[in-house]
């Protein structure tokens, strides 16, 4: 079989060494004679896994002492609802930046629980997608929080500035960029992420929340989504997604071994540069995103002639380059190049793109 490079946006590829370790210990985990999926989440062995994963994530992201780290069910979208339930009252306003599909989805869900107000939207600059900073006067200091998505997985739009929100806590959906580069956690009220892009199997989500924001949930909040309930039970209010948590722990160990998020940032920059250079140096391929707002995790690109899309995808797949079809909202192609994607995979894609252009363009 040709080596496969998987560019899926999510669930996305995991580090092969992590999968090999999981396979090796699948049937007989820690000499228990059982798999990690078959042991009590409250037993010492699993608790050690759970604690170690938290410790390693705290180390990787330099999470300050006054933050809780929660491992929850429900992926990224669970927190579209859990955030308003935990951080606001029904009469409150929540502020939102809308830079693409996911941050837009968060507004729709928040409107069930509070009064969302959009204070910044994706615009165009030089005919390309561009995200502007909201102006300070737009930030109502009585708002419960300001929600944004620094990396839009579908649209490939990203920005690394932080909205200046004064006292209003920042809430970031980092599902597709968590652990891809260093960030200053102390600037945020809440960071959440579905696991299936940069952390592990789908279903799990990670929440990092400043402790003064815990314990204020609306009365009707289901306990399973109540951050206080999760914080006080060590994320074991009910049975957590144990296998996903275990696998996330293996990914954290792998990240530490790679040199942590600093090393990842360098690696991710190099991959993204390689791909964007190939797009920019050709008139056959195009990016619709302004260079100042381009994601280093998700790279959508279009063929000048969309009637060649299917041929491109078929031939790429035959070459071992899979899951390159763009999101149905955007069309064209999308290469997701999360932490686990090696530079070699991106180089192979670029070679294929250049070869395809020569043959067909
Ligand atoms: C994938 C993704 C989500 C949704 O994750 P689910 O686990 O499917 O709920 C939310 N936000 C962003 C930015 C994502 O990339």
What does this entry show, briefly?
By secondary structure, the protein is an alpha/beta fold.
What does this structure look like?
- The protein has 361 residues and is an alpha/beta fold.
- Helices cover 33% and strands 19% of the residues.
- The protein is built from nine helices and 15 strands.
- It has an eight-stranded mixed β-sheet with strand order 2-11-10-9-6-3-4-5.
- The longest helix has 21 residues, at 260-280.
- It is globular.
- The model has no long low-confidence stretch (mean pLDDT 97).
- Bound molecules: pyridoxal-5'-phosphate (PLP).
- Pyridoxal-5'-phosphate binds at residues 10, 75-77, 102, 149, 153, 173, 175-176, 194, 197, 202.
Domain unit count: 2
Ligands: pyridoxal-5'-phosphate
**Strand count:** 15
Give me the CATH superfamily of the largest domain. Answer: Type I PLP-dependent aspartate aminotransferase-like (Major domain)
Please tell me the overall pLDDT. Answer: 97
Number of helices: 9
Shape: globular
The proportion of residues in beta strands is 15-25%
CATH level 3 topology of the largest domain? Aspartate Aminotransferase, domain 2
């Amino acid at each position: 079989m040709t080596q496969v490079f998987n560019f899926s946006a999510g669930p996305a590829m995991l580090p092969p060494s992590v999968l090999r370790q999981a396979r090796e210990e699948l049937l007989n985990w820690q000499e228990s004679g059982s798999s990690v999926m078959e042991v009590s989440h409250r037993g010492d062995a699993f608790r050690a896994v759970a604690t170690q994963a938290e410790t390693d994530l705290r180390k990787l992201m330099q999470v300050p002492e006054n933050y809780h780290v929660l491992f929850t069910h429900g992926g990224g979208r669970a927190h579209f609802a859990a955030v308003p339930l935990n951080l606001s009252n029904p009469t409150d306003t929540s502020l939102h930046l809308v830079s693409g599909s996911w941050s837009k989805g968060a507004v729709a869900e928040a409107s069930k629980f509070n009064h969302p107000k959009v204070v910044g939207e994706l615009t165009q600059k030089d005919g390309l997608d561009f995200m502007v900073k909201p102006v300070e006067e737009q930030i109502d200091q009585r708002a419960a929080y300001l929600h944004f998505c620094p990396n839009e997985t579908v649209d490939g739009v990203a920005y690394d500035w932080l909205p200046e929100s004064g006292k209003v806590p920042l809430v970031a959906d980092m599902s597709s960029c968590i652990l891809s580069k260093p960030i200053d956690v102390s600037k945020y009220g809440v960071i959440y992420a579905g696991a299936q892009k940069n952390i592990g199997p789908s279903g799990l989500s990670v929440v990092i929340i400043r402790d003064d924001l815990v314990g204020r949930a609306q009365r009707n909040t289901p306990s399973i989504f109540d951050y206080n309930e999760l914080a006080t039970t060590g994320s074991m209010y009910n049975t957590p997604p144990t296998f996903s948590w275990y696998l996330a722990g293996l990914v954290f160990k792998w990240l530490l071994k790679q040199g942590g998020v600093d090393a990842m940032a360098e690696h991710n920059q190099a991959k993204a540069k390689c791909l964007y250079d190939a797009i920019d140096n050709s008139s056959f391929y195009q990016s619709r995103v302004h260079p100042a707002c381009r994601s280093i995790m998700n790279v959508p690109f279009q063929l000048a002639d969309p009637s060649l899309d299917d041929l491109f995808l078929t031939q790429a797949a035959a070459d071992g380059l899979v899951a390159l079809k763009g999101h149905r909202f955007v069309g064209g192609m999308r290469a997701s190049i999360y932490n686990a994607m090696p530079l070699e995979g991106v180089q192979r894609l670029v070679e294929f793109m250049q070869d395809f252009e020569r043959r067909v363009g």
